[in-house]
């Protein structure tokens, strides 16, 4: 693998959790591994590795974009990532209120339901 893959893998694990990332890579067959490599190198090793925004800011942006795209699996993953990157539950709820205004109430209702599931799994956060 490349240096960007290695850097991206480290960032991806720090945000999404080592167990999730390891499972994604271990479960990838030869075809799916192409996508795993692309995501790890370019999403995580290129964009997330940039110094222009802190990881917590990137997480906050992701919550809004992923909610707008109606991707609940990814939203749940990135709520956990946002907690890992230092956002508080209160800040995530504020983001969901913003989502309600700009993405619509149904998106916010789904986002709040998902966030509450993640919060329940992370009572210390």
From TrEMBL:
Domain of life: Bacteria
Annotated Carboxymuconolactone decarboxylase-like domain residues: 34-117
Pfam families: CMD (PF02627)
Alphabetized PANTHER family for the sequence: 4-CARBOXYMUCONOLACTONE DECARBOXYLASE FAMILY PROTEIN, CARBOXYMUCONOLACTONE DECARBOXYLASE-LIKE DOMAIN-CONTAINING PROTEIN
Protein name: Carboxymuconolactone decarboxylase family protein
């Amino acid at each position: 693998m490349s240096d960007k893959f290695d850097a991206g893998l480290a960032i991806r694990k720090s945000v999404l959790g080592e167990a999730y990332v390891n499972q994604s890579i271990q479960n990838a067959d030869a075809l799916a591994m192409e996508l795993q490599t692309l995501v790890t190198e370019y999403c995580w090793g290129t964009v997330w590795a940039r110094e222009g925004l802190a990881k917590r800011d990137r997480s906050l942006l992701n919550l809004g974009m992923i909610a707008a795209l109606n991707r609940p699996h990814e939203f749940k993953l990135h709520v956990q990532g946002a907690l890992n990157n230092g956002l508080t539950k209160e800040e995530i709820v504020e983001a969901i209120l913003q989502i309600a205004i700009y993405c619509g109430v149904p998106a916010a209702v789904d986002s709040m339901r998902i966030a509450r599931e993640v919060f329940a799994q992370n009572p210390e956060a």
